[in-house]
Amino acid sequence: MTQTAEPATTTADDTANRWFADFEAALRARDVAAAAGMFATESYWRDLVSFTWNLKTVEGREGVTELLEHTLESTDPSGFVLDEPADEADGVVTAWFRFETAVGRGRGLLRLIDQDGPKAFTFLTTLYELKGHEEPRNEHRPMGAEHGANKQRKTWKEHRQQEAESLGSTMQPYVLVVGGGQGGIALGSRLRQLGVPSLVIDKHPRPGDQWRNRYKSLCLHDPVWYDHLPYLKFPENWPVFSPKDKIGDWLESYVRIMEVPYWSSTTATSATWNPENEEWVVQVEREGQPLTLRPKQLVLATGMSGKPNLPDFPGMDVFKGDQHHSSAHPGPDAYAGKKCVVVGSNNSAFDICGALWEHDADVTMVQRSSTHIVRSDSLMDLGLGDLYSERALAAGVTTEKADLIFASLPYRILHTFQIPAYEAMAERDKDFYQRLEASGFDHDWGDDGSGLFMKYLRRGSGYYIDVGAADLVANGDVKLAHGQVDHLTEDAVVLEDGTELPADLVVYATGYGSMNGWAADLIDQETADRLGKVWGLGSETTKDPGPWEGEQRNMWKPTQVPHLWMHGGNLHQSRHYSLYLALQLKARLEGIDTPVYALQEVHHTG
Amino acid sequence: MTQTAEPATTTADDTANRWFADFEAALRARDVAAAAGMFATESYWRDLVSFTWNLKTVEGREGVTELLEHTLESTDPSGFVLDEPADEADGVVTAWFRFETAVGRGRGLLRLIDQDGPKAFTFLTTLYELKGHEEPRNEHRPMGAEHGANKQRKTWKEHRQQEAESLGSTMQPYVLVVGGGQGGIALGSRLRQLGVPSLVIDKHPRPGDQWRNRYKSLCLHDPVWYDHLPYLKFPENWPVFSPKDKIGDWLESYVRIMEVPYWSSTTATSATWNPENEEWVVQVEREGQPLTLRPKQLVLATGMSGKPNLPDFPGMDVFKGDQHHSSAHPGPDAYAGKKCVVVGSNNSAFDICGALWEHDADVTMVQRSSTHIVRSDSLMDLGLGDLYSERALAAGVTTEKADLIFASLPYRILHTFQIPAYEAMAERDKDFYQRLEASGFDHDWGDDGSGLFMKYLRRGSGYYIDVGAADLVANGDVKLAHGQVDHLTEDAVVLEDGTELPADLVVYATGYGSMNGWAADLIDQETADRLGKVWGLGSETTKDPGPWEGEQRNMWKPTQVPHLWMHGGNLHQSRHYSLYLALQLKARLEGIDTPVYALQEVHHTG
Known about the structure:
The structure is a homodimer.
Chain A: H1 12-28, H2 32-36, E1 39-48, E2 55-59, H3 60-75, E3 78-82, E4 87-89, E5 92-100, E6 104-114, E7 118-130, H4 156-166, E8 175-178, H5 182-193, E9 198-201, H6 209-212, H7 224-227, H8 244-257, E10 262-263, E11 266-274, E12 279-286, E13 289-293, E14 297-300, E15 322-325, E16 339-343, H9 347-358, E17 362-367, E18 372-375, H10 376-384, H11 390-394, H12 399-407, H13 411-428, H14 430-438, H15 451-459, E19 463-466, H16 469-474, E20 479-482, E21 485-488, E22 492-495, E23 500-502, E24 505-508, H17 516-522, H18 525-531, E25 564-566, H19 571-589
Parallel strand pairs in A: 1-7, 8-9, 8-14, 9-10, 14-25, 15-24, 16-17, 16-24, 17-20, 18-19
Antiparallel strand pairs in A: 1-2, 3-5, 4-5, 5-6, 6-7, 11-12, 12-13, 21-22, 22-23
Helix pairs in contact in A: 5-19, 10-13, 13-15, 17-18
């Protein structure tokens, strides 16, 4: 390629602007090869809805070529423009930008490296609104008062009452969201702002109960800056780690403030797709009364930590003490002085062991496989601090920007960014890890040293964010046993090697199953199999078999079961990805064409 | 004074920095004359707590001299520094600044004009925090989770329960706030953040009922940007004008989210100062149970629109129809086809007439004195738009800045800033005012043409923010009668001129009394007289007799009754001035010396 003599003072803006101009010109000319040629040999384009009507990461010029060949014409992109001054550091030009498509408006983040001139290394394009369907906020917020004199006036309260009465009876929701935890609530608020008639249903008596009902000492393990819901952020005096009841109360207030259409005490018992009417027929029980709902779209937001994995050990039927899955653990109050055996060594196990010990129980943790532990403050500082913290905010990294920065790091290489952070944590907490390992605890850093977040993304398990209980294991206050459980007796847990652990209480901190288990329960096994395993990246690491997916399996995007969607994740993901799912649903409601590029194949059923 | 040759490029920053340097030097040297000499001949220094432990506006060099002579030594101010680049426009340099005192940190706004060199025209100094008692927010927010292992752990929920159980029994609040509307709630949240043990009590069953119980069609007349509460702003999709039930729900959620210590269904029946124990003895009824509270400080936040002014006309006892004060009006539902006479022509009267008309009642408004009307959208645009609007936010005028800008305009000259805005409104809505006056409506623009906000500040009455009902009067749909009421008969209202208005319903939209009426009810008349009239500026305009006060009588500052304070105002004032009142109370709790400069004398008792 010809080397032009660049003026000595080419700024980052110049570089980015030139790239956008050339890229847009290629797109306008429908010159896919030219557009693809603007990407580096190793490169990643992640599109959230705007081009692909999917959540899709493609790699290299081949990936870009295929994506554009399939989507360029219908997307008709234009107006690529810098959103603020570009940044240059360590040879990488980073540029926030906006653009338009035929039906929407997008924003994204570009990283350019020098490879015979500036080439895209990572390119994130996201849809943030649909033309003609902009959310009513800021200068477009609703008036609230209907000024003037109007004999047909209905007050806000009357509107709300009328809505509540007709929803599910004379008016069917377009979208039914099953599960009213943070995921369902965040999605419900987005859908309402987009004017999509929706309904969120939840089995508990009050929004927030999913948290209230957890063990007594539970607080969120992710810090507040990471946890905001859409539209209404926690105030600046909200605690760093929300106590469970406080987050429960927040969710309850949020549902009311954001007018999320929400039915408590409502269980979905079955759902069947009716192809003639093109709707789901969903049987629910609302406060004990049976009811049929007929949404066009069904979203399961039933929670990753939703469907308990209860083991089936011989002797569970003869054991005389208390036994339950960690999700059903009531807390330590009844167990002072009792022998407690907790099977499992990840988050729930540690929280429960810690609380039991504080309540003077005799506690043994049974570790069956290795666990990755990181200290909460180290994770907060070194893991999240650049994006989600007071210092991030002070540096201009808003929650919205942080979410997009995070989203712009390709899953394929995300671990490489994580490894140094975890090495730093290992160094910072060297003493702690020495003591932990000296106690016999089997500790890991993830298959490739990439630590907690990758474990979370790949398998949603296998870690503990330490808020103090790990020291109890390290110093022996909580006893440690190793190995698989063989069977239970009337009063003990017996391991494979014969070790007998006398027990008044056994807690199975044995995790949760893939979310398509909910689909099996609600719809049928065939549909669950067609949907396939939910969550994971296909990284060929423990519990995340290949092939490579490139995105979270089945989350927030079209699935192999038309009209069936999965939503959820942690508070950050619920917040961020609810936007893209809501936009996809809104587009379908409005009859906007949504040609899905590269609908993901299913490789695993659970 | 010697003219120095100024460099051609003296910036606004230079000017401001030079002034602050000189001012601080004079203060440090305790050279009051020099400091006063830095003010223009017509000038205003408004101090909110930082120097005066009062809310105090002084005028001219004499005023500055007196203020400094009394406060300079104990305040020990320093560290005056620009907070951001200064602005220069129309010969005025405007500078945001920070400073310190012996016990606190302050921020303010300075306006410099050229009068033989730069002189202060307006100077606002405000206290925003006390050293050593900073609010726990942002990087100092509470952790929430107590990390580590602790056998004595109390969860958040247990702390809250313990607090609720002990408050008012084993633990007396330092501050008791009587009245749990927006004023009590805003103050309660500030006090909690400052760690002042407090309690807010309210007679209604739920926070927000003060709004829910109002007439059906009521929405806030002030736009959302003006109405935020402290700490937790309305989300960006909140309606411009909150419907009453929605604001009621917000207040209820806010109390919970901000952990405001709040007792509903609680009425204060008497309060007596006990000089031996230096505490108030307050008898309350909580859900019917009598209880004694012993706060050191008593705040009445019972509302400007709290104590109804019910007239006493002859014949009220013989009238056979419904009659009630506007505050007790249930709404129009029972009055379709009925003859309704509404006595009064201000906000409540218009709202009620409008709602009755929409419900097919036969409505007559009795206008007894002139009313100032401004259309809601014009007020929003031309009256508030520069400070409280989307465009203000886009221009970098945050709510906090807007409040300080507003506070920096001296009450003495505020009307001069207002007059042009109202002239603009008169022009914009010329057609409307012509029609209104053609109907015989007696319209005014305030005594000096300064419009609504001055009427509000001076007398808290005499206006209507038109949201549509004025057109009904203008076009005759709502009939108009003029004059004082002479008496009632069994079925009519009879005016002084003999006009007989048949009536099934009479609504006395006759306003509210001075808030010291609450003090008379709760404490005794002597105390109420010692406290004096509440509200008003002493402007010698209608219902605001002189002498000039310079600040709102008795609001948010020390009164002639030690340990008795008045809080309230509209949502903007509740938000902003709750900070200063909370800081004054915190200082007293902590034993910080609070020498009050120029405690206001009482000139009127009601």
